[in-house]
Structure formats: structure tokens, C-alpha cells
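Input:
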Amino acid sequence: MYDFKKIEKKWQKIWEDKEVFKAVNNSDKPHYYILVEFPYPSGSGLHVGHVRSYTAQDAKARMKRMQGYNVLYPMGYDSFGAPAEQYAIKTHQHPAKVVEQNVETFSKQMKSIGFSFDWSRAFSTSDPEYYKWTQWQFLQFYKMGMAYKADVPVNWCPTCKTVLSNEDAAGGVCERCGSSVELREKSQWMLKMSDYAEDLLNGLEDTNFADRVKLGQINWIGKSTGASVVFNIKEVDDTLEVYTTRPDTIFGTTYMVISPEHEYLEKYKDVIKNIKEINKYQAEARKKSELERTELNKEKTGVKIEGLTAINPITEKEMPIFVSDYVLSTYGTGAVMGVPAHDTRDYEFAKKFGLDIIEVIEGGDISKEAYTGDGVHVNSDFLNGLNKEDSIKEIIEYMEKKKCGTKKTNYKMRDWIFSRQRFWGEPIPMIYCDKCGWVPMNEEDLPLVLPDVPNYEPTENGESPLAAIPEFVNCKCPKCGADARRETDTMPNWAGSSWYFLRFMDAHNTQEFASMDAMKYWDKVDWYNGGMEHTARHLLYARFWVQMLYKLGLVPNKEMIWTRVSHGMILGSDNQKMSKSKGNVINPDDIINEYGADTLRLYEMFMGDYQMDAPWNIDSLKGCKRFIDRVIKLFDKVNDKEGFTKDVVVLQNQTIKKVQNDLSDLGFNTAVSTLMILANKYDELDSITKDDYRLLLQLLNPIAPHFTEEMNEKLGFEPLYATAWPEYDEAKTVENEVTIAVQVNGKLRATIKVDKDIDKDELLKIAKNEENVQKFLADTEIVKEIVIPGRIVNIVVK
RNA sequence: GCAGGUGUGGCGAAAUUGGCAGACGCGCUAGACUUAGGAUCUAGUGGAGUAAUCCAUGGGGGUUCAAGUCCCUUCACCUGCACCA
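Output:
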């Protein structure tokens, strides 16, 4: 009788004691770096979703090791962030304490599943030894001019009392608490990510990311090309600059719009006759949250600016200027030219305000809607007769000659707002001195650690909790020695996770964040697995971070991640996302207790396509347990013959090939079913040899490592972890006798067994002789005969 | 609205990339063994039909000797982004 709890503990101890999974820097073996996204150590413990991706990559890591690779498969914790802070506030503990407890739980859970992580490299992003380097890197970015402070309208969550990045406030809703987000002006640390838009785009060529991942990055960066066009203003000696992707439609411009935040409203408040009305509109727009602005996008609002008139630089025509919140202050120049005939939003606005609509491209019906397609230009002077592409080229050339416009590229991606008014994050190592302004901390004073204080609740005015701690705030200016104040904002959660994969390459380095030698040895993350939800922003932040380090000469490659893959979610048995409120959460501990870690691992690999969502099914899990029990029972069939059983050699070679390919390429479910087929075959035999049995154990070991080691030991072999992965012989993956389908007019009429090397004519002859085929050939005329050796015979008749 | 994805038995899913649709597993049905079974074993299991055979991969059309797979069109659902000029 086998006791899985005892056996699993036994092997986990052996692996740990013998440091079987330790990665060695500078080994002679070929290196392979497999990375899984490290978890946020929440209070609810490990999720079955973690188990899915960690098991999958674990299987790959285990196979790669047996294939002779020096595999780096590390684990750590992304431990800064609001949930730990909030939980700590609620339970009156220090967040560090909370993190420590949760990390312990997570580690224990992961060890009980038998993941082959190199635990010696583990760390948490909230360890001072780690965040020292996050801070150090920030200082380098500051010194190279990539970090700056700016007053920006930021997304403000009234509930969390904190500023959110555009990403965290997607859709105008706070990602954490779901509150509606407001806009507020705040002085924030920013990273000049927009400087790297083009590099981040081009860098994708140096990666092997899946297409859907690349596309996510491309969309996020949001490159567009067009023109910047300058309009004169009639009443004042000034110009209004707009950005447009359709300069070819300039003859159809009938009005201009600027955003409520546009500087001209302040600058020309004395010229604007209806400034009161406009100020009122501005105030309303500010009050509207992002959410309302988007939700109410059907109805356009705005005010005509009395006293300012724009002049079309091409036609010299005068036209009104409006202020409207459908124009964003943060994109382009915060001003647009209104071409209602050929832009949907302009069309709506023009209809509402009764503005002229001039068609300049043929092809649509502008009495009904704006026509945004391509076509022949009309009413456009020298552009008449040209299509979109040609007229864009033509008009830009013309504008450049007339000096009223120029070719321009824009990106949706904005600079990264890097400040959080939170306690539980890396303190930003900057000091404000009344004389010297912002001064970076001396590097030798790092880490700047979080103070050990009992209170760190957010302040009412939105300042960081650190601002209320004088011991932290007050300091001396590193430059002049005068009394100075520390920055009290902390870094966002994304900071620590933007470079953790570099630290894993050299986790104990006290002199550098990671040595160049170590990073050169590992070269890149070969294989990075994570959630679909992180393929856009986390990946982009990490790539940006690395590219800055590269510019500083601190990493060997501009892209440090080669392949990125993502996994599907595990849903509850009700096909809904698992959540406490729905009561459909599965705790991996319960499964391990009742069925064992091997069963849990096997089931999660077998449950479906790894890249797709899959619902939890307890019966299916039991089926996997049954399979393991059956493999254990096969032990009783082992005879004392040498070598492999002749009847199963082909199947064995096929199985090795299939499992090997599947584990390399996310085909975990089919790897398992292939192994089930082999086990079923063994079951049919009266007896099997030790080698037969051992092969099955070896192939199954990466997915279910505990019991396979145990059974292998019972056979008297050396441990599987110390054994080379079996090799298959391509020539032996095909049976001598193959089954061929015979069709008449594409319909199956017979199957025949023939020698695999049979020649075409012979094959056709045998096919035609089949009784049932004869029946369908009778009284017909053969039109065509298709013979594909090894596959199919199809006879077409009339 | 835009982008991406998915749609195959009662369920999770396979399908060598254009070549026998439903591998493997769950569930179900019948039987065996058992004091008992929610344990185990054996057989069956897409639908219709006694059968030969016919029908079947969201719907419709097409290409091809051959389509789940390629093309066109349409519907449904999921995930991002969302007034980005």
C-alpha cells in the first residue's frame, strides 16, 4: 500500500537535502532560464491558478535538467503593494510582518507541491537587500535624466486616497476598489517612458514573444503617423497647433476644438469675450470623472470661444474655435481641427452645433454619417483626384514648403507616473533642499529603509503616510548639508517586478544588483510564463526598465526576455472566475491532503489546453488519481526479462517523441493522454520488463515527480532526477504495418493494413480489391485515383 | 466602435497542420466481484436506422479528389483598449 503523503515528503526532503535543483552560474552545461511570474503573497495563500503555471514550467524544467541543461527555475515574492498594507492596517500589524507570514505560507505550500525551484535564490521585493537596488537603479535613471518631477493631472481614487497610473485606472475605475476615479493636479515623479516608445516597438524584433503578446505591446504603445499643422489666430499674434493623421482632409476643416485644459484659455482670458461661460465649462469637465467622460461619450458638449478665430493655413478661410472635452489634453497638442465629413466624432459635434460639413473625399453619404474611408479627393484644390495615401504625401510636402505644418509621429503611451502616496513601497531616494532643489541620495546610504512605526494609514490630504513621520522626513541635504526633507512618496508595485528576473541570475550579490558576468552567462530569460493580464503593462514596464539599464551599460542585452507565453485561468466548477464571494474557490492544500500533490499536478496539466481557461472538475481530478493508482499497480506486472518488450517498442518511441515535444511547447494535456495510452497498452500485456516500466516512470516524472521516483527506487534504479532523459529513434516511431483509409468519392469504404513501404500501385491494387470498395466501384467510371502513401487512397468515380 | 480570441458529443477536450472527426479522460449504461460500494475489473457509449448506410465540428456559401483545418459571409460569447484626432 502506498502512502502518498509519506512518499511526497520523503522525496521533497531528498531533493532539498541534495540540492538537486540548484542552478550553477558558469556551468559548462548549456543554460536554460525558465521564469514564472512570482506571486503576490496575499493572505489567502496559493491559488490553484499558480499551481497550473508553476507545474507546467516545473515539468519543462525537470525535463530540461534530465536532458543535460543547467536550468535556472527561480521563485520569489512581489511583496510590496496595497493589499498587504491594507491588511496590516486592519489587523494592526506591520506590513513587513504580514508579508513574512504570507511568504512562509506560500513557500510551505509550494514546497508541498514539489516544484523544482532553486530556493537558494529566493527573495522578496520588500527585502531591503533587494529594494536597495531598486532604489539604486532609480537614482541611475534620475542621473541620466529619465526621472523628473511634474505637476500632472492624475487619476485620484477618493477611496484609496491615492494616485493611480493610467493603467491602474483603466476605464475610469480604480482597479483595486472599483471607485470612480477623479482628476487632480499633483506633483509626481515621472519616468520618461515616451522617449522609449520607438525602442520598445523595435525591440520586439529581438524577442520571440507570441504574436498576441507582441500585438498587445504594439497596441499599448499606439504609434500613429500624421502631421502637425499650425493655424494662425486672427485676433492675437499667435498660432494654434494641432495633430492630425488625416492632413489630406484639411480642405474639409470647418472649425477647431481645444481641450478644457488648454493653456490658451488662461493665456487669452482677456481676449475671450465669454470667458465666464468657458470657465464654467472647464469646471464641469474637471468634475467629470474619466468614467463619466467615456460613458457619456454619445452626447458631445462644448462652448464656442467668442473672440478667437482660426485661419486655415491652406485655404485662408476663417473658422470658429470651440472648447470641448472630447478633445484630450494629454494626447497630441490638446487641439484638433474639425473635419466633420470625415471623422465620426467631429461629425457628431458638428451636427450638435450646426456647423458646416464639407465633403472632400468621395465614397460615403455625408448626409448620414462621416465617411472615414479612402477615396478620390474633391473640393480640395490641388489634391483633387488623388487618393488618401497620395494626398497625405502631397499636402505634407506643401505644408512643409509653406512652413505651416510638418510630418509628425505620435504615441498613445505616456510617461510613467512613478509616485504612490503609500507606505508599503520602495521609498524614492530623493531629498528636497530649499537651496539645492531635488538632490539624489548618496548611493552609499542606500537602502533607504521604511521606518518601523505603528501608524502608516493614508493621510486625509492624500500625502504619503511617510510625510507624517518626522524622523523619516527630516534629513540633511547631501550636497550642502543644510536641513532638508525627504521625498515621502514610494514607488509603484511595478517597480520591483521590472527587474526581478535579473536579480535571480545573481541573487546574493552584495556589490551589484547582478554582476555583468552572471547576466552574460545566463544571457536572457529563455522562457517567461505569466498571466494574460500582465502581457501588456508589466511586460512593457520590464522591457522599458531593461532598456534604460542597457543604455547605462548595466545589462548585456537590450531585451532580456526571449520568449513570453501565457496561461489560461482556472475557473470554478460553475465556469465563473474563482472568488470568495461566489464560494467556488478551490484551495490546493485540500486537494493535496486528500489526493496528493502528484494528482493535483497531473490533473492541472490534463484539464485542458494550457493557454485557455478551464473549469475545475473534481471528477476529472479523481480520474487522474485513478491513473496514478493504475501506474503503481503496473509494478506487479514487472517480469525479470531484459530490455524492452518487442510489441511496444514503436509505441514507446512514439511516446518519448510526443511527450518531449509536448512538454517543450505547452502541450501538457496531450502529453498526459499520450502517457495514458502507453499505460493502457502495458495493462493489456501479461507482463512488462523493468525497462518498460521505468520508461513510463521517466516520462511521467516531470509532471508527477514523487510517486514516479518512489516506484523507480522500488525497481532498484538510481533516482530519476539523476538520470538522462530517454532518447527515441525516429525510425522506430513508425509501425511496419500501417492502416490506410480507402475512400470512394471522399467517403470511407474500407480500411486496409499494408506494409509501410508499399509502393503506390500495389497499394491502389489492394485498395480496389476490397469487397466494399468493389461494391462502390461497380458500374462506374473511374475519373481519378489519389494515392497518398501512409495516409489515404481516394478513388473518384462517375 | 476598434483589436485579439473562442465556438467540435452529456462534460473537459484531441485531430500528425488539407487526408479515417471525437484520441485521452470524466460522466453515463450493462455486467462481474463483493455483506456493502461513491473501490476495482469487463463491455458499450456523437445522432438516426434492424441493417446496408446516412447525418454531424455555431449558421450560410465557396475552393478541392478530400475541409474542424483554406477563402468569403453571418451569428454568438469571452478578453483587452476605448472620444488617441
